[in-house]
Every structure is written in C-alpha cells, then in structure tokens.
C-alpha cells in the first residue's frame, strides 16, 4: 500500500514537473496544438473534396444554411434585416433573369461594380448559381483601369450599382463598342443601351436553378476574380478558386467564431477580406453580419452596441481612426470579443486595448492571390502569426536575404538564395506545391511569371514571391516589416507606382516621374510621393497637377508629396532608384530639392514649408 502511494505521489510529481517545464519552455504548446487541430480538421474536409470530386462550395454551404435556418437573419443593412431565405430567394431571382434572357452560360465571367449593399451578395450568389464566375471591380478605379479589367477576365457583362452608374458615363461608348452589356440596379435608365435589372427582378421567379448548373468537381475551378494592384501599373485579376474561397471561409471558425456571433463588416466587399473571409465566414458559421455601406468611425461603436456585435473585421487604418476619435464615456460598454484583420501597428494595438477593452485581435496575413497564410491565434501584439514545426511540415516557406538597392533577392556564388538568421528581416517566399498552389492572374501569363522565383534553394524548385519583408523571432512569431518593389499600401489600398507614374507622365510639364511611398508619423502604410523632372521650357504648375490627379487617380493613389529633381538616379539595369528617395522622406530641412504638398483646401500642390511639414508630422493636418 505504501509502495503504491509512493508510486502515485511520484507520478503526480512527475506530471506536475512536466507541466511546469512545458509552461516554461513551450508556453504556447497547447494553444498551438488545439488551433492546428482545428485547421487540420478543416483541411481534411478539403482533401476529401479532392479525392471524391464532390466539392461543397461556399455557395452550396449557403444554400444548405438557407434550408436549415431560413428565418435567421443573414444580413442587417441600414436597419433592415434580410434572412437567409430572403437572400437565397433574391439570388434565385437574379439567376432566373439572366437564365431567361439567355445572356450567360456556365463558365462565363460577369463583372460586378457595386458598393456594399445586400444586392452585392444577391448578384454574386445568383450568378454563381448559373455556374458563372464573378469579377469584383474596385469602385475607386478610373476609366482606363476599368476598361483594362474587362480584358483581363474576359467579362462581357457588367452589373453596376445604381449609385455608380454615373461614374461610367465617359467609358460607356467604349464598353458598348466592345460588345459589353451593362446592367444597372435600377428600374429605369436614361443612359442609352444600359439595361435595367430591378424592374425585371420584380417579375422574376424565386424558384431555384438546378444545382447541377453550379456544381463543380474540382477545387481548382475559378469562382471569382478579385483585382489587386501590382507592379504592372494596372489592376491584376487574381484568380480565386473554390479552394481559396473555402479556406478563407474557415477563418472565423478557426479563431473560435460560432453561429451565435454577430459580425460587423464595414470593409468594401470587392476586397477579399470582406467577401471571402467576412461573407464566406458568416455563411460557414450560419451567423449574422451587419453590413455597412461605408466605414464610419463616429458610428462604429454605436452600431456595435445597437446590433450586439461580437466580431468585427478591420484593417490597421480602421483601428487607428477609432483610436483618434474623441474619448467618450462607456467606450468599453459593448459585446465585441474578437476582431479579425491585418495591418495593425503595435502602438495602435495597445491603444485600442486601453481604450476599448481586451478585445481579442486576430491578425491574419495573406495576399489575395498568394499561397501562404499566417494566423495570429496567440494574440501576440505586433505579430501576424506563429509558425511551429507542424505548420512548416505542411507549408514550406522561407525568409531570404533581399537587396533593397537592387530590389531583388540576394543570390550566392552558386546562384541560390540564402536564408536569413532568426530575428533578421527577409523576403517571404512560399514553395508552390499541391498543398499550396498558386493560380496566378487571369489574362496575364507575364504578371503570373513575375510572382515566381525559380531555383531558389535547389535547381528546379519554384516559390511564390510575396513581395513582403518579414522577420521571425526566437519564439517563431512572425512580424510584417515592409513591402518591396513597385507597390505600397495607403488608406487600406495597394498603390501601383507604375500606374501613378503613367498618369503623371500625361501632364505636359512632367518629363519623368518616379513614384514611391514614404512613412508619415502616426499613419499606417506609406503615403504617395513622386520625384519628377520638369520638362525643359516648362515650369511646375501645382494647380494643373492637382486637377490632373484629382480627375484621373483615386484618392488613395494621389501623390501627397512632390519632389522636383534635375536628374533621376538609376540602377545598373536602368531601373529608377527608389531606395534613397524612400529613405530621405519628405523633410524640407534635410532635402535641398523643391518640395510640394497636395493641399485639398487650396486645391493645389503648394510649397512644402517647415510649418506645413510640422503640421503633418504632428497630426494637425488631415491627410
């Protein structure tokens, strides 16, 4: 008896010692195990789809939810509730209209240009029910870029929101010349050749389209095209397959979302975050979402309280805007428990917690077209995720040394890339494989090829170049550091420097322009800046340049700062040198070149004086 008791005591002491050791040496062990187990469960479901060719898509999941919980609120928009049945039946109406008219067939692509509203989802799902792919168009893009989008994805039909039809006036003739049908979400239209959809929906049947029209046997079948800015100067159509849609839809669930959650979506639905993670994630859970037409910092917490929001989506800028709002009583008096997004700075993260409570901030890293994703399930401030040995077993990625001056990965004498050491910043590259495929861009093999790195560590291997600089610390937490190349991020949007350069080049007094992003204290991302050479015989005209960028560029892509130079610094391969320009910033006290600032109040680019500079860095001047 005494021996048995001794053994039991020793066993308990041993287990206790192991737990103490685990907590000290491997503090994240159990969190990692439980999270990876959830991810693995979801991954097994996708593997079953691959093996059996019986793919249950996000749309199939929605139809299942509409049958299971028809009367449950799915979308709440401007105080009006739309149930799962409501959205299902209205999307059936959309499908029936186009089916009856015979304008589309399975496999076609239809472009969608709409602001956030329930009909965005109804049109999206309705067209998917016909077996069509849908191309989400950014509502900020201008005429030249918009026409380019149709060439990329091959769409011959455009569905446009009633509030956006006016923005198409200058390109409607071009669209009609290219035999592109335009359908407006209106009952009547004064624009010649524009079809109306709302009047036809009123007369349309609610009967569902046979499920075989939307059925697919492959996860690799494209279902969406989402446009992303890049180094081409024009938007690129990232191919979104059912595999990517299903992976994104599992995000909320993986972080602990449930069917009882109320999800707040104020990000634009044409972005993958709001559509794939937000709407797709709500569908996967069978939850409810509060959809906002546009984000409002002043209305945000009132909405959260009014609708009992428990989860919201964010980008770093959104949280910063909330922190910049005047302090009010009861800021922690809400039911929000979790937020899912990306780009949250450490200082904003801490201030957000201090102001609004210990909301679980779930950072996610991943580009629309990329084949790698990190999820910060541990809540480490400043990290986008944590990579364990188990994660690396399934997803092969590396951080490699990068030459910021030459703007390319560093290769050794054998021609291979070199991994950075722990804690060092390197370019994130992800191995392309069956488990982590890269589907590229529609209509552009050249741009797809640009995202590939070959012979990275051995001859014949192939990696996806994320274009992002990351660092991984001794505890395997991964942090985002910067972007490389010809793209930077401002106001939650990717800005393609080549596109801005081309637009600036149309101004008569600009001979050459070099566009890049500069850091502005207190702001997320990088603000646009352009170094320009004035054409001989001309003078810089701040008013003319202001009018030009206001007309031809979306607000987030307009250069806030202009630097006049006599000559451009070039690399050995005749590429414009940006590294030095980015590093020097926009401080007039350290830069001898003339500097100008985009002043919306003056409607002109005005000289960037020391006083103006101080007002910008002190946050007194709104950008």
Automatic annotation (TrEMBL):
Compartments reported by the entry: Cell membrane
BP GO annotations: long-chain fatty acid import into cell
Domain AMP-dependent synthetase/ligase: 63-387
Cellular component GO terms held in the UniProt record: endoplasmic reticulum membrane; plasma membrane
Residues spanning the signal sequence: 1-17
A Pfam family that the UniProt record links to this protein: AMP-binding_C
Catalyzed reaction equations: tetracosanoate + ATP + CoA = tetracosanoyl-CoA + AMP + diphosphate; a very long-chain fatty acid + ATP + CoA = a very long-chain fatty acyl-CoA + AMP + diphosphate; a long-chain fatty acid + ATP + CoA = a long-chain fatty acyl-CoA + AMP + diphosphate
Topology in the lipid bilayer: Multi-pass membrane protein
A molecular function (GO) term: long-chain fatty acid transmembrane transporter activity
Keywords: Cell membrane, Fatty acid metabolism, Ligase, Lipid metabolism, Lipid transport, Membrane, Nucleotide-binding, Signal, Transmembrane, Transmembrane helix, Transport
Matching InterPro entries: AMP-bd_C, AMP-bd_C_sf, AMP-binding_CS, AMP-dep_synth/lig_dom, ANL_N_sf
Domain called AMP-binding enzyme C-terminal: residue spans: 499-575
Enzyme type, top EC level: ligase
Known EC number: 6.2.1.3
Highest taxon above the source species: Eukaryota
Family: Belongs to the ATP-dependent AMP-binding enzyme family.
NCBIfam families for this protein: PRK08279.1 (NF006134)
Protein name listed in UniProt: long-chain-fatty-acid--CoA ligase
Upper taxonomic lineage: Eukaryota, Metazoa, Chordata, Craniata, Vertebrata
